[in-house]
Specification:
- With 786 residues, this protein is of the alpha+beta class.
- Helices cover 44% and strands 26% of the residues.
- It contains 23 helices and 27 strands.
- The strands form six sheets. It has a five-stranded antiparallel β-sheet with strand order 2-1-5-4-3, sandwiched between helices. Strands 7-6-10-9-8 form a five-stranded antiparallel β-sheet, sandwiched between helices.
- Helix 20 crosses helix 22.
- Residues 1-9 have low confidence and may be disordered.
Length: 786
């Protein structure tokens, strides 16, 4: 293996040794956990920094100030560019834009001015950080001093150009320099390799083989090892990066993982330059690899720590803040900035926070903060409104505590949390509003309402309560119910105890004796009301003076009783009158019939006609009287028992058999249910309706169907015919007594039958109605309720 080197100086070896020692110390301290990560980062020899997605720097480690001599806040944002060499700024900015657009790590070399005004080369590496949705949030980066390394690389290139001419004279120097370089690279775990692109052969130094955990003597060719050990997930990216360097002439600078046979996955950093011929074709690539596993693990731990921290804060929904009172700078977590509407990046000062506080809350919040800063309270805890950029206000609970004071007690650092309590405050305001409305409702409702606590002391009473119980002008709030009503009957105390035990008591008509001896009737209900924890808080009374209504009810009951007696007397009179009328009617009919029989030959035609009119009128009178008797019997109390409706319908058909046969009627009867009814009246109901269906025809053969269907609480029956039909305007008239739509010559009858049907149905708790149209038949429906 041919190794090329030049003298970098003893200082390079010493710095490499220091770097190795520092790295060893960092690896040992990383085990202490994420809580010490910031201290570890700030102890590194690198310049550590962070910036937002737009490239604005929001953190510079103390190494920056130590190196540049500038630690003031003006270095944040874009102020740090003042320390970058003017010849490098445009190139650095262009490279950052490219990496930001490609969402890849940044790796670029540029010069930074030291405090003494000199410039040194630094290698800048930055890793982008993304949120859960893949949006770029910030950059985490370091600047590593590579001035000596670049000097060494320059010297190596110069020596390589003149190597053939000076081999003889520089052999001894080359050996010395090679030994120094080997010791330096071995100390820093840096491996050097040289790839001949044309022949595709590679040369590795011993450190390269050690980095890959291999033995030079038994290992395959270096080129096969380099590409073969690449982690499968990183291989496509690194191959593309190598090809890009060969095409463009840019330096190869990348990080990747390798899978070695003797240990875990390792992280490597490679930097390589491409040499070209006069026509620009790549000849060779010379580079270095070094192990950055410790650094990568540290960055990974940092990311995991930040992720756990942010996740924990998101889980609580609280925002965290850390206020440095010496610099008046405050760190606000993402949740805090989101809650208060602050930008995701940038410094938030005390003035910024103060301007956001609602004017009505400002003095209270300021006084609470000052009291805590003076040490008068253990913590700051205030609920107040904060204006967001959109102009709306949110309620927050600010909680904080001073964590550090100097020897004089001056506060140095304060940390705390913000919690969004907008929903709770809105709910509280709504509850207070509802309580106010409830108090107003109780006070002004037209009902008599009183609310008492467990000791039966008045909490609230409506104006109607005060009016009904002659308490207007008295202040009863806080007084005992028994003090307000000293003559309260003992039974009311039992009611109160039942309600306070969780029961509900009520009465629809309760007499209430006033102090003047007059009696009022009350309708009341007493029920418990409950506290927020579910316990019984007291009693609510709802009362209504119903004296007027009760007096009307008593009068109505008396009138109903009188009406019932009157109806009974009228029914008895109608029955008796109808029965007594039949006796003289039979005498008139008998004598008229005898006269016509004995003296028929002696009477002229006019006399015979008069006799026939008398006989016919007497017969009609007899039919009317019998109808009235049937109607009066229906008005009596029905004797209801379980009755088969099918049996009742068949019995009615037997009674109508002669009429059915005479007109050749067709009657269909489907099975009917059993009902609770007066059997005689049910037969009469079917007989009247079926008889009408047969009678009211216009020369057609009568067709009658009898059906039923269940309804809520009973059954509905329907009798459909194909008769002459009825116009809609007569639907109610036909159910009146003696109401007829046709002459006796057209259709005989008394006009009482449908009145009897309605009476029977109503006596059974149902109703009767019809559907019909002239010439289209009729369907009578009636219900019998159980």
């Amino acid at each position: 293996m041919v190794e090329c080197a030049s003298a970098p100086g003893d200082r390079w070896y010493e710095e490499l040794a220091q770097l190795r020692a520092e790295n060893a110390r960092l690896r040992a301290e990383l085990g202490a956990g994420g809580a010490r990560f910031r201290d570890l980062v700030e102890a590194m020899p690198h310049l550590v920094w962070t910036c937002d997605a737009e490239g604005s720097c929001d953190y510079l480690g103390p190494q920056w100030g130590a190196y540049t001599g500038r630690s003031d806040p003006s270095q944040l944002g874009l102020g740090w560019l003042e320390q970058v060499h003017t010849q490098d700024r445009e190139r650095v900015h262009a490279e950052w834009l490219r990496c930001s657009k490609a969402r890849i790590p940044l790796d670029v070399d540029f010069r930074i001015k030291r405090a003494d005004g000199t410039y040194r080369w630094f290698k800048t590496r930055a890793v982008p950080s993304f949120d859960a949705r893949g949006n770029l949030q910030r950059w985490l980066g370091t600047n590593t001093d590579i001035e000596d390394l670049r000097v060494t690389e320059a010297e190596l290139r110069a020596l390589r150009d003149t190597l053939e001419q000076t081999v003889a004279t520089r052999t001894e120097e080359l050996g010395i320099l090679s030994e120094r370089l080997v010791r330096a690279t071995r100390a820093a775990r840096v491996g050097i390799w040289d790839w001949d692109v044309a022949s595709n052969t590679s040369i590795w130094d011993d450190n390269m083989y050690q980095l890959y955990g291999l033995d030079r003597a038994t290992s395959p060719s270096a080129g096969e090892i380099w590409f073969g050990a690449l982690h499968p997930e990183d291989k496509p990216r690194i191959v593309d990066a190598v090809e890009l360097a060969l095409r463009s002439g840019k330096q190869l600078d990348a990080r990747f993982r390798i899978v070695i046979p003797t240990g875990p996955i390792r992280h490597m950093h490679v930097i390589a330059s491409v040499e070209r011929d006069a026509e620009g074709r790549p000849l060779r690539m010379l580079g270095v690899n070094w192990d950055v596993t410790t650094e990568e693990l540290a960055l990974q731990q940092l990311r995991e720590t930040e992720q756990r921290w942010n996740f924990a804060l998101q889980g609580t929904g609280d925002g965290v803040w850390d206020w440095n009172l010496e610099t008046d700078e405050a760190f606000l977590s993402e949740r805090s900035r989101e809650l208060l509407g602050h930008p995701r990046t940038g410094v938030i000062t005390r003035a910024d926070r103060a301007r956001a506080v609602h004017p009505d809350d400002f003095e209270r919040v300021r006084a609470g903060m000052q009291a805590h800063l003076r040490g008068e309270t253990q913590c700051f805890s205030e609920e107040y409104r904060v204006r967001r950029p959109e102009g709306d206000f949110v309620w927050v609970h600010g909680l904080g505590r001073v964590m550090a004071r100097d020897s004089r007690g001056t506060p140095l650092r304060m940390v705390g949390t913000y919690k969004d309590i907008t929903e709770r405050r809105l709910a509280q305001a709504a509850l207070e509003q509802r309580e106010t409305l409830l108090r107003q409702f109780i006070a002004h409702t037209p009902a008599a309402i009183a609310v008492l606590d467990r000791d039966m002391r008045y909490m609230q009473a409506s104006q109607r309560w005060l009016t009904d119980y002659k308490l207007v002008g008295q202040d009863i709030i806080g007084k005992s119910h028994y003090e307000v009503f000293p003559d309260l009957p003992e039974r009311w105390r039992d009611v109160h105890q039942r309600v306070l035990s969780g029961g509900v008591d009520s009465c629809d008509d309760d007499p209430f004796v006033r102090s003047d001896g007059s009696v009022e009737w009350l309708q009341w209900e007493a029920r418990p009301w409950h506290e927020a924890d579910g316990s019984i808080g007291g009693v609510i009374f709802f009362t209504q003076v119903i004296t007027t209504r009760k007096q009307l009810e008593l009068k109505l009951a008396e009138r109903n009783e009188q009406l019932s007696r009157s109806n009974a007397e009228l029914e008895q009179f109608a029955y008796a009158a109808s029965h007594d009328l039949q006796e003289p009617l039979r005498a008139v009919t008998g004598c008229t019939q005898l006269l016509a029989h004995r003296y028929e030959s002696a009477l002229d035609a006019d006399a015979g006609l008069l006799v026939r009119h008398i006989v016919d009128g007497a017969a009609r009178m007899k039919t009317l009287i019998e109808g009235l008797l049937q109607l009066s019997r229906v008005n009596g109390r029905a004797s209801r028992t379980a009755t088969g409706a099918t049996w009742a319908a068949r019995q009615a058909l037997l009674n109508l058999d002669a009429s059915i046969v005479a007109c050749n009627a067709r009657v269909s009867l489907e099975p009917l249910p059993d009902v609770v009814a007066d059997a005689t009246q049910l037969v009469q109901l079917f007989q009247n309706l079926i008889g009408n269906a047969i009678k009211y025809q216009n020369g057609r053969t009568p067709e009658v169907s009898i059906t039923s269907q269940p309804v809520a609480g009973g059954h509905q029956f329907s009798i459909r015919d194909n008769g002459i039909g009825i116009a809609h305007e007569y639907f109610e008239r036909i159910f009146g007594v003696f109401q007829r739509l046709h002459t006796r010559e057209e259709y005989p009858g008394t006009g009482i039958g449908l009145s009897i049907c309605r009476k029977i149905v109503e006596r059974h708790g149902g109703r009767i109605w019809l559907e019909s149209a002239p010439g289209c038949g009729s369907t009578f429906h009636f219900t019998i309720m159980n």
